[in-house]
Amino acid sequence: MAARVLACAPCHGAEGEGTRDVYFPRLAGKPAGYLYNQLIAFRDGRRKYPPMNYLLEFQTDDYLKKIAEYFASLRPAFPPPVPPVDSKEILARGEAIVKNGDPQHGIPPCSACHGPTLGGMEPGIPGLLGLRAAYISGQLGGWRYGTRTALAPDCMQVVASLLTEDDVKAVAAYLSSRPAPADPSFAPRGSLPMPLECGSEPH
Amino acid sequence: MSRTSTGLLVGLALALLPITALAQQKAADPAVVAKGEYLARAGDCIACHTAREGRTFAGGLPMKTPFGTLYTSNITPDPQTGIGTWTSDQFYQMMHSGRFPDGGLVYPAMPFASYTQVTREDSDAIYAYLRTVPPVRQLNKPHDLTFPFNNRSLILGWRTLFFREGEFKPDPTKSAEWNRGNYLVEGLGHCGMCHTPINALGGSKQSQAFEGGLIPMQNWYAPSLTSNKETGLGDWTIEEIVDYLRKGVSAKGAVYGPMAEVVYNSLQYLNDDDVRAMAVYLKGLAQGGPPEKASTSLPSAESSLLLSLGKSIYDRDCASCHGATGQGMPPDYPPLAGNQSIQMVSAVNPIRMVLNGGYPPGTSGNPMPHGMPPFAQKLSDDEVAAVVTYIRTAWGNRGEPVSARQANELRAATLN
């Protein structure tokens, strides 16, 4: 399988660990359902990034599933966390949103769905560690402006549109500053009571 | 309206309805429908008449042309928005003459200039099949063409210049296999739409049939299919052509660019006999003219610098799959030595493969293809030019050097 997906390596790393490019995400160890949903969305053009849309355009569901399972099964080391460049106040704001949300503005904590260790949950919720701030804020921005969508009901669109620019910056800064999790696996299906309905994580 | 005339109209309608209904019932023979489905695959109708994430055959796919954007039409049997009210005569008129039921002219992005060769029997089978697909109520989007191309009467001029109406006539001096291949390649396959060069008026240059050409708007070069040894299929065996068309990979090379779509949606579904017939016909195409000479070549000092840089990049980034001497490991890692698609006068394909990488299509014969990584983010324009120059000229390859400027221009090529 590694040889078949060599095309992914320049941007995502030979084992899906990510590369130095801050816009390309780690794939390894994310739940297969999440990776599969993204591969399908790229293939069919709903998630837009032309180099990905182009590479996947003529691949079958079966093959994309195998690719997703392959990267989900890998556990390469996490990159060392990036020393935060943002102020303590910003990091604290990010930590608060990640762990407790912002009840005043109806924002649920990230950990409610992505797990207390932020490792994600099977089948469709990704881990949030090992990603760079630029990627995280890029994705949250994409959801706010409608350029990234997930299966309806699109819970991430709801959450992202409640966040301010400063919230996005703070969440991205905090998440990208976190060290590798002690246990890099995701939570089992249905193990977390989710505060929102999500099309990509059917109950 | 008076009661009498209403009654008369209803009577007329009732008198007319059963005839249409009967005609349709007659067409619904399952064997004919299955044949029609197969032929619709051979014609690759789905590729254009289905939008991304859209309903099958409901149209709406934007097709960018040098003259503006066309939106493909709904060919499901929905009576209001599709072709549900068409008769098989009207369908044949569209395929054969490029005219709508009301006589209006069809834009030649619809390959009726090829489909005109389709027999009445095959057209009726496709018609019968299309009547069985789920109807989708979806209005056709109006085309977005620039002046003066938004004037449909211009199509008359195009037709006068480029359209020769007429069903396929077998050549009795040739084998049945050759004739079947001819029919599929020139008719439903509409291969010439890309593989015959296109002139400024959007017509095919028939004097250079199948000699290859740049596909407008896509920035991919459709290679020559003639028997020319340097640029065409001269060195390919029938078996290699069959593998390439059905599986998407072969000992000579893998399918990439727009051809991946054709194999994915169309050719992989054809039976071995038909693909073999196409290969036999293609092998029989005359050699065509000598390849055009490249219009620009680099000063030799510059190209020798490019070559040494190119070799070091090749050894570092390419040799592990394509081999130290470009021999590849077919079918998963195509050979580069002697590979026509690398040496063609136009260098857009090798430059784009280096920039964008690519996967051959997933097919039943090759369900889990190996992919080539993109290097756009890793290599500079100079490095892309160097490595492409190297593979175009090393190991006996006879391509021309390419410049950093050419590489740079193709970074902006539309990907998808």
Write up this protein.
The complex is a heterodimer of chains A (203) and B (416). Chain A is mainly alpha-helical. Chain A has 2 domains: 6-73, Cytochrome c-like domain (Cytochrome Bc1 Complex, Chain D, domain 2, Orthogonal Bundle), CATH 1.10.760.10; 88-177, Orthogonal Bundle (Cytochrome Bc1 Complex, Chain D, domain 2). Helix content of chain A is 43%, strand content 0%. Chain A has 9 helices and no strands. Chain A has helices at residues 9-12, 32-44, 50-56, 61-73, 88-100, 111-114, 133-145, 155-162, 165-177. In chain A, helix 2 crosses helix 4 (61-73) and helix 7 (133-145) crosses helix 8. Chain A starts with 8 loop residues before the first helix and ends in a 26-residue tail after the last helix. The longest helix of chain B has 25 residues, at 3-27. Chain B has helices at residues 3-27, 30-42, 45-49, 88-97, 112-115, 120-130, 154-162, 176-186, 192-195, 238-247, 258-265, 272-283, 300-322, 340-343, 348-356, 381-393, 404-410; strands at residues 62-65, 68-71, 144-145, 213-215, 220-222. The termini of chain B are far apart. Chain B folds into 3 domains: 22-162; 176-283, Cytochrome Bc1 Complex, Chain D, domain 2 (Orthogonal Bundle), CATH 1.10.760; 300-410, Cytochrome c-like domain (Cytochrome Bc1 Complex, Chain D, domain 2, Orthogonal Bundle), CATH 1.10.760.10. Chain B has 17 helices and 5 strands. Chain B is mainly alpha-helical. In chain B, the strands form 2 sheets. Chain B has a 3-stranded antiparallel beta sheet with strand order 1-2-3, with no helix packed on it. In chain B, strands 4-5 form a two-stranded antiparallel sheet. The A-B interface holds A 3-11, 21, 44-46, 50-51, 53-60, 62-63, 66 and B 52-53, 260-261, 263-264, 321, 332, 356-362, 367-378, 414-416.
